[in-house]
Amino acid sequence: MKRTLYIFIILSVVYSISLFADSKIRVVTTLPDLKSITEMIGGDKVDVFAIATGFQNPHFVDPKPSYILKLSKADMFVTVGLDLETGWVPPLLNSARNAKIQKGGDGYVDASVNVPLLQVPSSVNRAEGDIHIYGNPHYWIDPIRGKQVAEAIYQGLVKSSTEHQAYFQANLKTFNDRIDAKTKEWLATLAPYKGTKIIAYHNEWPYFEERFGLKIVDFLEPKPGIPPSPNQLVKVIGEIKREDIKVIISSPYFTTESADLVARQTNAKVVVLATSVGAEDEIKDYFDLFNYNVNKLAEAFKQAYGK
Amino acid sequence: MRKYIAIVVFTLLVTEASNAQQDSTAATDSLLSKKLSQQMQPQVQQTQSTAQPRNSINTNPNISVIGDFQMHYYSNLDKNFEFNFNEAEFTFQSVVDPYARADFFLSLEKDPSSGNYEASIEEAYLTTLELPADLQLKTGKFRSALGRVNPLHPHALPFIDLPNAFVNFFGEDGMKREGLSLSWLVPNPLDFYQELTFEVTDVPLNNPSFVRSNVDKYFFLTHLKNFWDLTPNATLELGVTGMTGPNDSSFSTNVGALDLTYKWKPLQFNTYKSFVWQTEFFYNTAKVAENSKVNSFGMYSFATYQLEKRWFLTGRYDYSNLPFESSLVERAYSATLGWYATEFQKIELQGKLSSSNYQDQFSQAMLRWVFVIGSHGAHQY
Questions:
Q1: Per-residue pLDDT tens for B119-167?
Q2: What is the ipTM of this complex?
Q3: Architecture of domain A188-305
Q4: Which of A177, A278, A66, A301 has its CA nearest to residue B229?
Q5: CB–CB of B55 and A133 under 8 A?
Q6: Which of A51, A76, B351, B369 sits a CA distance of 20 to 30 A from A295?
Q7: Is B41–A165 a contact, with Cβ atoms under 8 angstroms apart?
Q8: With respect to CATH, is domain B62-374 assigned 2.40.160.10?
Q9: Which of chain A's residues have a Cβ under 8 Å away from the Cβ of B309?
Q10: Which residue of A has its CA nearest to B374?
Q11: pLDDT digits (tens, 9 = 90+) for B160-175
């Protein structure tokens, strides 16, 4: 009995020492995209955990108690904000027992603070479906807005660890330069298809649409968050035929039944794009996300339009 | 003489206090100078912010109203069909200040016997945001941390009526009392989620197991919650609860409870498919006289399968002794079909067949329509 007690005490001591020995800034992010950007700015000074996976619907993540454990030990918490995670972040933060990462705390980073938003409603009514009262929250699917996200994360990291400010700043500059260079390439790849009309499953592409000059005509969901209805599908089929639309984009976490149904009735092709880092094995970081989406779209357009 | 001693003690106290004051001032000063030197370091470059004003900025709490409308049919009653607007629940939730948050659940509930609506405080409590050593304190009126059914508001459960064993042991309203709840995230080398909760509350005036007496006025509860991620898609929760409090014989009753929950939900298609299997056991030992004890046992087990994005099917088995007479046994089988229109509205239909060794077999049908307006927050996992 005594021996067990000693072993327990030794284990506890080792465990608490191991907690203190780790001097990295512990960051928890809601989405893997925020994780990827935090890792690029924080470099070897951060240890980042993302709650959601890249192929998961970011509106609906289960607030599992195991995440509370991560949050209770975190120095910094990065969220998309704009009520995207309203269904699962509040219960986690309320139980985290960590004032630092609560809204208003030094370690709370709302990645949206610097981002110019689209679709900010002037009035709100739930009859319109899942409306986000602050504006459309899917802004990270635009590389230029990614720079504004990086800026917010950088500010947060400096607050957590002032002594590494120069290091973070250098990383931020590298990130921004790389985004600028790559965005030029991505824009060039999709340039031939500027103004191309497409259909999307859910209203989560306005920032991507705006950046790459696409035109989303309609959605398979009749209203955001309401599953596709026969009426809506008939309407979309009409639009596809009338406007000669060739591509329907969807996301990994929606079943493609309804999109496939529409595709069979028309000549359109269903393309599942990635909404987050990690949606496919090959999408390892924030840059891969756009490499993947831009190439996949360009390929689909090339097949459809033969140019 | 006494006067002199008092003066000396007073002087000593004052000196002590002023010393402490000086110490703390010195500590504040050094903290301040540290902060200042930090501030003197090169400032973070403020880039031109393109931020837009975020609308609906105010200090009002999140407010919502939940409606719970029900229809009941009983095969064994004279007036065997009834409409019942069961409850309107008003919730107000917000942080109080940087140290705590507050949650209010006020209810207008129908009294089944009189048919009148009565206003009551369902729950109203303050929760701390950070205490040392991963502790969290809750104070006010709250639902006791008893297993899995008691902490949830009934409209959040996947069936309409509460399990027989739960109602027989703790009443239709369950255990929600006034007092203190302290919970602790237990650090463990295996790094899984373990939370220990200790509660002291007052005792209900009228409850099948616990009844307030003049001698003994407190109800004590300890709950240990263990949670494991089995795979990214599956989780397991095991909880153990111990309770003790006075009973209507002015002796004490002890209840032990065990809860086991398995949940499965694929990460990728998380809105389309899921499965939950939950079981709770209750064991009640009531001392009713100096040398006499009544032991009773109850349990329920249910499984919920999500058939499609909006459709949920639940089957439940109930078994229960009555807490005051363990020779009386109830059994029940029920099935519930739920249609969840959105996160804000659901309709459920439940059929239930009950049998017991003291009453004829009877059946029930229930329909429940739950709807929410406002910013109803998410429920715990």
A1: 999 999 999 998 999 999 999 999 999 999 999 999 999 999 999 999 9
A2: 0.83
A3: 3-Layer(aba) Sandwich (3.40)
A4: A66
A5: yes
A6: A51
A7: yes
A8: yes
A9: 227
A10: A126
A11: 999 999 999 999 889 9
